[in-house]
Amino acid sequence: MDTNNQQLERLLAETDVAFARLLRDPNSDELQHAYDMAKAELDNYLDLMRSQLQQRYSRF
Question: Is residue 50 scored above 80 in pLDDT?
Fold first, then answer.
């Protein structure tokens, strides 16, 4: 689980940084794309974790 926590922390940090940069220059297509990519990676990871937890605990 430690690895999962580290991965989640990394993805959250990357998303936060991308969002902060976008706030400084909201008209930047490049920064918008970087934020969208970071958010998509975070969302995909959360979906995977959610799915794994549902599978793990569906037996109970």
Answer: yes
